[in-house]
Amino acid sequence: MNNTYKIAFGLFLLLVVSLAWLESSEPEKINWNSSYTAQDKIPLGAYVFYETWNNKSDDSIKQINIPPYEYLNKEPEKGTYFFLNNYIDFDDNELDDLLDWVSQGNDLFISAYSFGEKLSDTLNIEISTYIASENFHSRPSLNFVNPALKFEQALEFDQDLLATYFSEIDTLNDVILGTASFGTKKKEKKINFIKRDFGEGKIYLHSTPQALSNYFLLKDKNYRYSEALLAYLANDNILWDAYYKSGKGFFTSPLYILLNNRALKWAYYFVIIAAILFILFEGKRKQRAIPVVEPPQNRSFEFSQTISQLYLEQKKYHELGLKKISMFMENIRNKYRLDPSNINENFYRDLSRKSENNIEDTKRLFEIIFNFQKKHEYDKDRFFELSRSINTFKKQDGKSGSEPK
Fold it and tell me: How far is it, in rounded angstroms, from Cα 310 to Cα 315?
């Protein structure tokens, strides 16, 4: 490796180390993605709400990890089916089974920004999104209507997230349980929590799921909101929905632990970078030499020499001469495109012209060939005469410069 490559490699390594240090020293950004799973400890997870409810309440909480349609068509238990997510949307069959289960004396609780078109049409409700006219703030101040649960001062969610409320309800059947006030100077009070009797059961709809998140419940005394909200759920058997969640309930990737910890994540990246650099530089230096494979050589000439030498040693001059004549005729056919099976004056003239040999020499050559073919005795002198005549004719090809007569 020359000095130029060493300097370039050193600068590249320094750049990588600098970027890694800057990234690792930067304060970790808060993850505001919606999750609402019982295991997630991010701001919009539901770990605090679930664990507090599970540990301090006499209610029995059972996590349901399958779709409601599948669970309700087995042998569903009696109780309250609790849904918490940023949106919930049931299909027709699932909603029918769920409402049928509620009408048999069970409760349904849903806290979400949206309840799906089918459920909204069934209950004749409409959800709207609050858009602030001042400072673009959409921070709800939450409270209850019941005097026994109402706070002296509403509890504010101090982050600007999606803010929804019930813009239309069925006033004959729905009971307003809670409100959300928006605005800084002039508060606009909206409905965010209602109850509907359905058959022998009840349906609770809550449009501010962030009020049950880790971030809200851990601030000041906001945990009182969840305590007051759960006071409406008198059933002691809670069916916690763990299927309709925006976050993952469990992680299948073994890299989850590595990538979730900043120090382990950068250690993992450095191992990958070091492995790549090792392959690029160290592997190139120790690569085994590739042997040179020579292409197969054409041994036909050596083979012909060997065969001819055998004929000569056995004094088979006539057979060897016939083979030489056969090869000469094949050469005329391939090189000059003439047919040696039809030898006449035209043939002599064409062959002498194309080979640039004298026509008398051409005729004399074929006379020697014909005489040799007629004789069958082993005459060494005749064979060498034939061989010299053919070789002379082939060597003279294109060199005489004489015009055929």
Answer: 9
149 and 229 share a domain?
A: yes
Give the domain extent around 268.
3-27+256-285
Same domain, 65 and 198: yes
Are the beta carbons of 373 and 383 closer than 8 angstroms?
Answer: no
Indicate whether 123 and 79 sit together in one domain: yes
pLDDT tens per residue, the chain (405 residues)? 567 767 777 787 787 777 767 666 666 677 888 889 998 889 999 999 999 998 877 768 999 999 999 999 988 999 999 999 999 999 999 999 999 999 999 999 999 999 999 999 999 999 999 887 666 677 899 999 999 999 999 999 988 888 899 999 999 999 999 999 988 777 889 999 999 999 999 999 999 999 999 999 999 899 999 999 999 986 678 999 999 988 665 555 666 666 666 677 777 777 888 788 777 766 665 556 678 888 877 666 576 667 667 666 666 777 777 888 888 888 888 888 888 888 888 888 888 888 888 888 888 888 888 888 777 665 677 777 878 888 888 877 655 444 433
The domain total for the chain is 3
pTM over 0.85: no
What is the CA angle 219-203-234, rounded to 5? 65
Alpha-helical runs (H) found in 116-198: 117-123
CATH code, 132: 3.40.50.880
Contact yes or no for 225/219 (Cβ under 8 A): no
> Does one domain contain both 56 and 159?
yes
Inside any domain, residue 54:
yes
Distance, in Å, from the CA atom of 80 to the CA atom of 222, rounded to the nearest integer, reads 24
Q: Are residues 274 and 352 in the same domain?
A: no
